[in-house]
Predict the structure.
Amino acid sequence: MEVSTHTKMPNKQTATKSNKPSRKRVHGIDRRKALIDAGLKLLATSSPEPKVEDITSAAGTAKGTFYTYFSSWDVFLAEVRNTLLVDYASKMQERTAGINHRNYWQHLEQEVHYYLRWAQDQNLLHQRVFHAGSTEEIPPDVSASHVIENLIQTGVTLGLVRSGLDMPVVAPLVFQTVHAAAALANAKNLKSVSRTTADYIRAALAA
């Protein structure tokens, strides 16, 4: 009795065909992430500012690969910036998870302190990505104003912050206050500037 050799082949071919796109997608994601990670590192440390070939060299990819994932340098800077913002918003959500009526203002001061220290730690990267960086719009759900608005709204819900505030105006004003404080802060006065800034915000918002 002959054993057919054709019964297994279609399944093997089908499996090979179905697996290839999955491997390509993962590989593509890895390359894209490698480019962004290289950007985060080089934009924070390289002088003068890195170029496309510096990024691709650090990521271990060909220069042409860069434009497979980013249509321009401006778009690349936007992705680096958005990666920072997503990470900040995610960690802020973790830091404020236990917020309640008794510790709300303490959490706010701690968040101000965290931002000032974060801005200092970013230093060159912050300047290149946020101030002299991309003209691409920031996704609303990770923008500084959106994150601050959520924190203020929590205070309203707890009865600690005045209700009826015009959030589209108030949230950006609070961010500008904290951002200005970052320009004044240094290693020696960081704690004092954090406390003063938080007190200023509390005086403006408290119910």
Summary: The chain is about 70% helix and 0% strand. Confidence is low (pLDDT under 50) at residues 1-26.
